[in-house]
Amino acid sequence: MINRIxxxxxxxxxxxxxLLVEKQFRLESSPSAPTKEKRxxxxxxxxxxxxxxxxxxxxxxxxxxFPLADTRFISRLLLCEDFSQRLKAADETGFxxxxxxxxxxxxxxxxxxxxxxxxxxxxxxxDGGVGLxxxxxxxxxxxxxxxxxxxxxxxxxxxxxxxxxxxxxQTTFVNFxxxxxxxxEVIKALDVSLDKARELYLRxxxxxxxxxxxxxxxxxxxxxxxxxxxxxxxxxxxxxxxRMVALLRQNPLIRAYVEKAKFSWVTEDPILARGLLKAIKxxxxxxxxxxxxxxxxxxxxxxxxxxxxxxxxxNTAFLEALEESSVFWNDDLDNISTFVLKSFRRxxxxxxxxxxxxxxxxxxxxRFGAELIRFVYRNKDTYRRYIDEALEGGNWDKDRIxxxxxxxxxxxxxxxxxxxxxxxxxxxNEYIELAKSYSTAKSGQFVHGVLGFVLSRLQKEGILxxx
Length: 467
Description:
Order of helices and strands: HHHHHHHHHHHHHHHHHHHHHHH
């Protein structure tokens, strides 16, 4: 019942809401009233971060595998604009600690903290690698006689400046920890949203039953009125005796839901239920059905298919009631109603035993949403770097890009790079459509262009093998 199209929609919506309020990681800012000591401390602080990146890039375990450079802490550093400019300058014009990069990298590789990191590398690091880098800085960098000697030879050196630099480094480690993502909370929100989608599906399946029961009670009340007409005494029972509704009523999954949830449309909102029944009886679909010379299971199911599409889903009071009941349901309605119609069709085709669809098609679909979220969070800094590099080569203003577009792009890259069984074209088309539906008018074109640039680059570099 819940397919990957709906899961993608939910993942995008939930990631957007969580990432929008996520605490951003930022480096320490340059001193507002700089003294020589403060300028020295801040410059040394940035150079220590540059040294970390250069050491990380120097440690390659096998071709193309840079375990320290792949940590989220390093990836986040590279997204900080002031730092990236400092790193670029160090690469182009020379770096004060260049001669120390190789020996420091060798010391790191020989250290216990690095060996422990490599031993547990297969496990997802909950702190993004910041604990590892804090230990490298505290136990290897600060204890290096060569590095301390090089620092002491920098112009405007002062011991107090070095202590100030150490404080800034510790603050940076703490700030990074504070910006870490609680993936479990995001996945929990996804599970709740998918459960609500399942609930909406079952509620819509009970709607024909409850409205039929309401009409049956009305007809029975009319039979016992003091002043009765011939229509009251001998009512047309065709609507009440609808065969598809009878099969829905007997379905064990629907009965189990009703008993567990203690739910009834008539009990929960009698005014809405009577209004829907009135709209149904005034509809063209109802009139045509009641005038048929004879009915069968196909015409019975076709009635409710028409009523759902042309009466119920167009009813303002019904839509407002859904919105009041759950923030998810109006967004879910288009997708879930197609599954309800599929259930009606199965009953009409004599397949009432499987009319109520399973929550997920298979175990892969059941895992898909949570796995997709984990891949986004684990690699979103890398994906964001790919996106930013694509923007630099295009005609887009980075400051005017909708945040939803960034979320769509990061999620698209997470799927394309981590789900080899999903064809590349399918993923690209799905996320272009999502951008059109949930972002700005030009978002579909934008997502298409950026994805094309990034994927072409990744294919050339051998990172993406899909065609």
